[in-house]
Amino acid sequence: MHTGSVPIRSSNRPRKRLLVHLSQAVETLALTKAPRTHVVPLKRSLDGSLKLQSFDVTSREFDHFENLSNALHRLDKGTYGRCIFCGASIETDVLARTPWATECRECGDQESQP
Question: Roughly what angle, to the nearest 10 degrees, separates helices 59-77 and 12-32?
Fold first, then answer.
């Protein structure tokens, strides 16, 4: 029975590609920006502190991280590779070029027309 989702056995490859993109984006961020460090003391029965690092990101960088995160979420839900507008399969070449793509070529073409 076809449910319109990506079979679990084939989701490993897109997941790997998305995680590689995420890793590269984090590495680029770490190489180009200085992290902000926050030390949070641990309370009660825990002794010590927790060191957190964060980076200031541009809206474009934030959008890229969000797109990757959303694509990984769609993989978990079984909707990865499906157009969010019409539900059709997103073309293989589109996903190969942009693994976080959310729309098929036809819906993307319609959206870009005035």
Answer: 160
Residue 55 contacts residue 33 (beta carbons within 8 Å): yes
CA distance 86 to 59: 28
Quick: pLDDT tens for 66-77. Answer: 999 999 999 999
**Given this structure, which CATH class describes domain 8-112?**
mainly alpha
CA distances to 2, 24, 49, 59 from 83, in Å: 16, 26, 45, 24
Please enumerate in sequence order all residues whose Cβ is within 8 A of that of 78, keeping only pairs 6 or more positions apart, or say none. Answer: 3, 5, 6, 8
Question: Helix, strand, or coil here: 49?
Answer: strand
